[in-house]
Amino acid sequence: MPSRLARVLVPTIVVAVLSSLTGTPSRAGEPPQAARVLDRMVAFLGGPEAVYGVRTLVVSASARRDGEALAVPTRTTFAFPLHVRRDFVVAGRTLALVSGPDGAQLVTRDGGVRLSASERVAFERSTMRDPVALAKARLGRGVSVELAGTDTVDGAPTDLVRLRQGGHETVLAVARDDGRLVAIRYPLDAQATMTVRFGGWAVRGRGLRYPSHARGTIDGRDAFAIEVQRIDVDPRLDPVLFAVDEGVATFSTRAGEGLR
Question: Does 214 have pLDDT greater than 90?
Fold first, then answer.
């Protein structure tokens, strides 16, 4: 019997095959102007086959919060479309946050603790706003997009597209000249808005283009900075990485490998 992770990945593989045959997948109900902006962004990221064909993605980076001297090593692992995991180091200890259809939890070497609904939302709110995850989101169920005007971001004229999914809303600022994702905006709560700017775009594995750094601000105030060290496109992942049963999840994408 196929594993739960395999059952989740099969539909993604089917979408990838269809994408390579037909170009950009059709999205019933997408306004034509918004669709053209998103198509331009997908082309910049490497094209439909490179973007929609990604099944798994591992992003190794260092993250620094505003005012903190030390950067925290992180590894974010996606098994599209429904699983995400982030390993990070705090005070010399490796921890992980895991989310999937069965729930979400914080994992330590001593076991796991289920996250509350609000904690899960906070975790997914940041991880699923990865550039590749956002580009693939338009293929998901219950997703709506609309053109949201224009703006100049860091001197770049952009078209704005609002993407709504599962109660989350993100505004994407897509450069008019080359389709790069200049920035995203999303509400943290009723009062505060997070803006994340991307830069240093480079072609990585399998023709996928990915940013080298990102900078977050909350209502104009510096919040965090991320430097990407490495990405792995479509690595083979052990399903146990995404298990949410207490004490089950492990700490590396390959045996013996940990964050340093």
Answer: yes
